[in-house]
Amino acid sequence: xxxxxxxxxxxxxxxxxxxxxxxxxxxxxxxxxxxxxxxxxxxxxxxxxxxxxxxxxxxxxxxxxxxxxxxxxxxxxxxxxxxxxxxxxxxxxxxxxxxxxxxxxxxxxxxxxxxxxxxxxxxxxxxxxxxxxxxxxxxxxxxxxxxxxxxxxxxxxxxxxxxxxxxxxxxxxxxxxxxxxxxxxxxxxxxxxxxxxxxxxxxxxxxxxxxxxxxxxxxxxxxxxxxxxxxxxxxxxxxxxxxxxxxxxxxxxxxxxxxxxxxxxxxxxxxxxxxxxxxxxxxxxxxxxxxxxxxxxxxxxxxxxxxxxxxxxxxxxxxxxxxxxxxxxxxxxxxxxxxxxxxxxxxxxxxxxxxxxxxxxxxxxxxxxxxxxxxxxxxxxxxxxxxxxxxxxxxxxxxxxxxxxxxxxxxxxxxxxxxxxxxxxxxxxxxxxxxxxxxxxxxxxxxxxxxxxxxxxxxxxxxxxxxxxxxxxxxxxxxxxxxxxxxxxxxxxxxxxxxxxxxxxxxxxxxxxxxxxxxxx
Amino acid sequence: xxxxxxxxxxxxxxxxxxxxxxxxxxxxxxxxxxxxxxxxxxxxxxxxxxxxxxxxxxxxxxxxxxxxxxxxxxxxxxxxxxxxxxxxxxxxxxxxxxxxxxxxxxxxxxxxxxxxxxxxxxxxxxxxxxxxxxxxxxxxxxxxxxxxxxxxxxxxxxxxxxxxxxxxxxxxxxxxxxxxxxxxxxxxxxxxxxxxxxxxxxxxxxxxxxxxxxxxxxxxxxxxxxxxxxxxxxxxxxxxxxxxxxxxxxxx
Lengths: 521, 252
Ligand SMILES: Nc1ncnc2c1ncn2[C@@H]1O[C@H](COP(=O)(O)OP(=O)(O)OP(=O)(O)O)[C@@H](O)[C@H]1O
Ligand SMILES: [Mg+2]
Description:
The structure holds two protein chains of two kinds. By secondary structure, chain A is an alpha/beta fold. Chain A has helices spanning 2-47, 52-64, 67-78, 83-107, 111-119, 124-154, 167-176, 179-207, 218-245, 257-273, 287-296, 306-313, 322-337, 357-363, 384-388, 393-400, 415-420, 435-438, 462-467, 470-476, 484-495, 501-511, 516-520, and strands spanning 249-252, 278-281, 301-305, 339-341, 351-356, 379-382, 406-409, 426-430, 441-443, 456-461. Chain A contains 23 helices and ten strands. Chain B contains eleven helices and ten strands. Adenosine-5'-triphosphate (ATP) binds next to α1 of chain B.
């Protein structure tokens, strides 16, 4: 047990430093912004009394927005994932304590002292700088301390929108039900919060104007200076650690099993065949989020499907010709987004109209057209996306000239259980889903060749390929090596047998002899 | 010369007046003492001269120029003001407090230091021992003397002193009164001095202005106000201490 923990920790130590660094950068940058904005607003509110209410009110309302809702909202507003929306959200959260304490601190200076400041001939600015701010400083720093400690906690959530940080371990641990990973994120985050609290507490102690004199011995002065510098030191160390450990390549993925397995495969190949450092930012969300992240440079590459690229991203009419589709997306991505499509993995994760194996046998269903005479009495369960997309149900009705008696929107993850439990008769399964085999389902032949090809391939930023040409070589090793059946098996290992996506990816690459390091052993 | 003409100040929109129709002149090089019971408007008058408060009506002129036309910040720097509430800056050392106006005027550090030391010695505070302390670490009387030193530091032409020696023992107070007198003679200061102490008023004042409930009762030399009181209030004001003095003589 102990040895197992030790090796678990040793394995993840480099990543732990990266995440701690990211975490500190996220918190540090957002608190710095919040100090700039919050103290300015606090000063303004002290000057112009009628805006005090609205400012404190607005900052208060911002803080009552649940953190996840705020992150999702900013994600939607900014149309991008990563550090930018995360820092924005953290900044907004940090505002209230800083604004409030600035107002309290500046207003708490006694009337006599303020009157003396004015009476002696200070301008408003001098009164602020020489008297009010220094006297309010401990109160303001107390607000910063509250904001920073809360920020360290909230920053764990920013992993949900692909900003990294210690929350990444927690996310991964939750997805895999792995307690060790959850603790690997949670414990350092708690320690970091304590450390930041202590450091800013020390600063606060040192900034108390009453501690300025008394005995000005050298050691006491040094202690004070050290206490003031401490928080800067911590955040600078974090930033430095982040820069040192910063990955060369960031790989993203959408939020389903196959994508995560493909992500791990690409990461393992790059790590094995080059000496680049890879950051895995998986589970980012849907197509548009991953695409946005790629275009904005939040990630360098992820696995996309040709059909999705054509219709969802480029907004073109679906096409049934795989070569044609691949050519079109390659050209358009290169010209419009400066992104390259590399050679496809091999498998085609297209939609496939799927029924129970038992039903297929009983009614003699083999092709999609065979359903036509039964369709009025069939209940279909389709994912919302499929119901809406032109290459989904609307196009399907055009091509096959029939519709199902009843169509329900159903979560893509739940439709397999729904058909296995007899709640629906027909689903639009993904051709590579592991549950097709596990639940005894039967994909029907697309005899009208309606469903466009969804061949998965790495999409990579052109600038990344230019900077690291070895990435192309590493990724092309797997080109064509992964067929539908293999993919279905790998998905099944993760979804049904609860193996970790990383181990599954590794096992497959090893079986194909694609990992150098592994072969030697 | 500072001239107040029909100056009134109301804090409640004209219902009551803290100062009403006050007209008085303070000549150059003169010390005008303001006497009067608590709440009669002395501090309010000083603050209006300093422009911490604006008069509700009436004008205050300096050498014929209306001070409301002047830049208030510059005007205040040319005045030394010892506040009734002292108002030392709690985060600044004694030395920094004394030198604050010099700092605002942009004096070089060494000169500021020398001047602060000089001022502390003048008010009987040992610079060696006290200049690095914070105001909290001083007695009430010591704080009051720092306030006076701060008012004097920039060698201002005008001095506004609001009960500057109120917290001091009779001996220290006497020393400082003598200092102030010699300073005034040497440097020709124009001083407005508020006190509740009749003897202090008689010692320091070239002329005495007696206020009652915001209104000027009488202004004149000590002989005039004591010898020919203009109102029952003025007479009473000086009768009480005279009787006490007689009683004190009897004891001796
Ligand atoms: N900012 C203010 N708002 C309202 N009323 C005020 C204000 N300042 C002073 N007053 C009132 O004005 C009147 C004169 O006050 P002032 O401070 O001038 O008295 P004073 O003569 O200095 O008294 P003391 O000898 O007790 O210091 C008092 O009745 C006081 O309550
Ligand atoms: Mg007063």
